[in-house]
Amino acid sequence: DLLPAGLEYLSHVASQGTYDSVTGAWIVGSVVKDAVATLEIVARVAVSNTTLVNIADVTADTYNPNPDTSANATVTVNPRAELTINKTVDRRAVRIGQNVRFTITVTNNGPDTALNTMVTDRLPDAMRYISSNATRGSYNPATGVWMVGDLPAGSSAVLDIVVQLIRRGTFVNVATVSSGSSGGNNTTDVEIDVEPSPGPGPSPGPSPGPRPVPMKPTGAPLTALVAGMLLVAAGSAISRRK
C-alpha cells in the first residue's frame, strides 16, 4: 500500500507484522484461518482540487483461489482558497444627512479558485442606501448580499457602497466573506460617528434707523440770529399800534 503523491505519511498502526512507509510494503506474516489483520495509516492531504486514489494489493505464498486481491479508496479533495476581506470608509466622522462611501475588497490568495464567493454586508438602520458599484457580481441592498461568484487565485473584487447617515450615534458596519473553498481572515468592519446637523444661527437684530443730518454752519451765531428776529417782530408790532 504505497501512498499516492499528494498524501504525506504521518503514522500507522498494524495489528500484526510491520509496515514500511517508504516502500509501502506491509509484511503481515502468517494469518490463520478466519483471522483478520488490519493496518491503519494516517496521512496528511498536501494538495487541493484533485482526486486521490490509494491502492492496496495482497500477495501470499499460499495459493489463493480468490482472484480479487486488490482494493482501492478514492478521496476527493476540494479546492482551497485563502480569502481576505478589507473594508474602508472615506469619512469616519460625519453629520446627519451627509453621505459616506464604503469600499470592500476581497482577495483570493490561492492556491485555487474560490468557488461561489459571497460577501454579506447588511447596512445598519441608521444608513440609507444610495448606490453601489461592483467590479464582479452584483450587490442586493435589500438582503445585503454581494454575489461575487468564482474568484480566481491571485485576483481581487471590489464593491463600493454609498449611504446617507440619517441618525445620530456610533455605528459599526460589518462585512463577511464566504466560499465553498475559503479560509483565512473572513470578517472586517468599520466604525462611524454621526453628529447632529448644525442648528440655525441667531436671528438678526433690528436694522438701525436713519442717522440725523447735522445743520450746515451759517457763519452767524445762533443766539444773535434769534435776537435779531425777535427785534424785527417787536418793531412790526409797534408800527401796527401807531
TrEMBL record:
Instruction: Tell me the domain of life.
Output: Archaea
Q: Which residues form the signal peptide?
A: none
Pfam families per UniProt: DUF11 (PF01345)
Q: Where is the composition biased (Pro residues)?
A: 197-215
Could you tell me which residues belong to the region Disordered?
Answer: 177-219
Q: Does the keyword Flavoprotein apply?
A: no
**Low complexity compositional bias: what residue ranges?**
177-188
Its transmembrane ranges are 219-238
Q: Which keywords does the record carry?
A: Membrane, Transmembrane, Transmembrane helix
InterPro entries hit by this protein = Chlamydia_OmcB, DUF11_rpt, Ig-like_fold, OmcB-like_DUF11
List residues of the DUF11 domain: 1-69, 83-189
Q: What is this protein called?
A: DUF11 domain-containing protein
Provenance organism: Methanothermobacter thermautotrophicus (Methanobacterium thermoformicicum)
